[in-house]
User: What shape does this take?
Amino acid sequence: MLIHILGSGAGGGFPQWNCNCSNCQGVRSGSINATSRTQSSIAISANGEDWVLFNASPDIRAQLESFPTLQPGRSIRDTAIRAILLVDAQIDHTTGLLLLREHTEPWDVYCTQAVHEDLTTGFPIFNILGHFRGVNWHEVETDQSSFTIPGIEGLIFTAVPLKSEAPPYSPHRHNTVPGDNIGVRVENTESGQNLFYAPGLGSMEPHILPYMQQADVVLVDGTLWTDTEMVEAGISKKLGSEMGHLDQSGKGGIIEILSSLKKPRKILIHINNTNPILVDDSAERLALTEAGIEVSADGMQLEL
Ligand code: MLT
Ligand code: MN
Ligand code: ZN
Assistant: This one.
């Protein structure tokens, strides 16, 4: 299977339009060794022709242009995206659906009941798309049962419920329910290899570890280096943990978790613009490299 990183940044992207943190300012002026990043999305295919889009970011238009494989020319209007899977209902993962409204048939969208609720109430994108070609909703269960996606042969999917935050506009904002956020295991039935993808990991619950241990690649939450990063930059009053993102450098953080894994290749995604790992020659980036952890970039492609 092919895994194409369309967007490796967190919400806001890098640089963020209104941000003057040292990273955003530095990448804009070219004074640091860093590469800009669009917002969180990947695409996966077993045959290289039929793709599942994981999350639809507000940057989808540029992301599709950056990866022409997703826009074949078989008819006057065409796409290689056969289905869309959403891991949560956050703006950075769902707004792109509106930009895909010109699709010639209803979109097959896979998400949990909780995400469906958000996208038909607090952020009613599905209702809006109903005025275009509409959405065929396929419920993703949160009981860790496997499922397949018609038209996507050779891949088996398993949703793993994760504790994170529901979006501000969610009816269950202050009362998170299973399915507000999922990780996904994607297995290639031919090679037997699998990916564990979790761009929003708020807490390391016991049921998650075996998925990581058994994965060939883990592609996980790289939002923040420290829990206090956005507070210290004067950007937010909220800690990473309050936003549903486990930091990398703290006790019990992402580095510690990933370092315990023997099998997988370890890659971070959904990297916030304040994170010092975005600077290619920073001490924090070096520490990751020494721990055997990679930082994804837009355009990166993996094969499993
Ligand atoms: C998140 O991952 O916590 C959200 O996408 C934040 C946001 O709204 O940008
Ligand atoms: Mn996000
Ligand atoms: Zn910034």
Summary: The pocket of zinc ion (ligand 3) is lined by residues 16, 19, 21, 23-24, 273-274 (CB under 6 Å).
